[in-house]
Specification:
- It is a single chain.
- The protein contains eight helices and two strands, in the order H-E-H-H-E-H-H-H-H-H.
- By secondary structure, the chain is mainly alpha-helical.
- The chain has a two-stranded parallel sheet.
- It is rod-shaped.
């Protein structure tokens, strides 16, 4: 494992890019390395300078690690990034609501579509009422689940079977 290399500029501020420690640190970085900066204000004091350094490192395939959550600048960066993420989420939510309002106004927002058409549902209920098919058979005839069949029967006002035994055996039709 390679030893860590630490470069420090003593007595120099970040306002001047001509700093020997910074030059040594940048010169020592190779593709795949990570340059760790404990405080952003020690790397650069202006946005153009920070961007130039970051662009240079990116071009050379060197990663830049700035985040230190214990440092005031690190906390600020974290909070700014969190605010940007929250802002993006709020924008997406707002645009979705606006799009739904427009779709609803144009008659295109109808919600979840029923599994069966009105004709299919009427046919299912007719077969059920005739007692010709069990619920399991209706499940095979129509591409829906048992709960969908029960809901269709309930909507039609027909009595759904009370027990699983009744669901298996079709009702006997007498000539009374």
């Amino acid at each position: 494992m390679a030893a860590e290399r630490i470069y420090v500029d003593h007595g120099l501020t970040g306002t001047n890019r001509e700093r020997p420690g910074l030059h040594q640190a940048l010169a020592a970085c190779r593709a795949g390395d990570t340059l760790v900066v404990t405080k952003l204000d020690r790397l650069a004091r202006s946005l153009p300078d920070a961007r130039a350094i970051a662009d240079e490192l990116t071009q050379r395939e060197v990663k830049l690690n700035l985040h230190d959550p214990t440092d005031p600048v690190g906390r600020l960066l974290f909070n700014v990034l969190a605010m940007v993420a929250e802002f993006e989420s709020d924008l997406i939510r707002m645009r979705t609501r606006e799009g739904m309002k427009v779709a609803k106004a144009n008659g295109r927002l109808r919600g979840k579509q029923p599994k069966l058409s009105a004709t299919q549902e009427a046919h299912l209920v007719k077969l059920y009422r005739a007692g010709e098919h069990t619920i399991s058979e209706l499940e095979e005839l129509f591409p829906v689940t048992r709960s969908t069949i029960y809901r269709a029967i309930a909507r039609a006002g027909a009595r759904a079977p009370a027990s699983s035994a009744e669901a298996i055996e079709p009702a006997a039709v007498g000539s009374g």
